[in-house]
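Support reply, case 0932

Customer input (verbatim):
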Amino acid sequence: MAFEGLTGKLTGALDKLRGRGKLTEKDVRDAMREVRMALLEADVNYAVVKDFVKKVTDRAVGEEILTSLTPGQQVVKIVNEELTELMGGVSARLTYAPNPPTVYMLCGLQGAGKTTMAGKLAKFFIKNGKKPLLAACDVYRPAAIKQLQVVGEQAGAEVLRP
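Our regenerated output:
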């Protein structure tokens, strides 16, 4: 999956901070350099990465360290809060068109989990009384079409093929 590499790199960068009794500003900046590189390698927009790293660094360097957390845990907490805020901050519900059909399009790189997500969404819709129709639109990769058919059958959804 696309997020596995990013998760590993972020975990590696932040693991260096965990377990330390005291963090220096240099420690935080070094960790944020690794976080910046991990996000850029994951094709996150440069301006978004720059703003994110600045926010986290400003908070982590200026933050009073909570007594219940080690300094490293505090930085991890700040990164988690800022990533959550970057992704929208709150959960959003799926909305339906007033007149059917409602169309959702899943886009992303190969291996990002679109087919799996389509199956999960199909199951969710079926559970909520909807009748999903999955459409295989990757005409250049027959195996991707077959994979969607298998996932759709497992979810109990109809699959439209080219």
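We compared this against your earlier run and they match. Two observations from our side: The mean pLDDT is 83. The first strand starts at residue 133 and ends at 135. Please reopen the case if you see a mismatch on your end.
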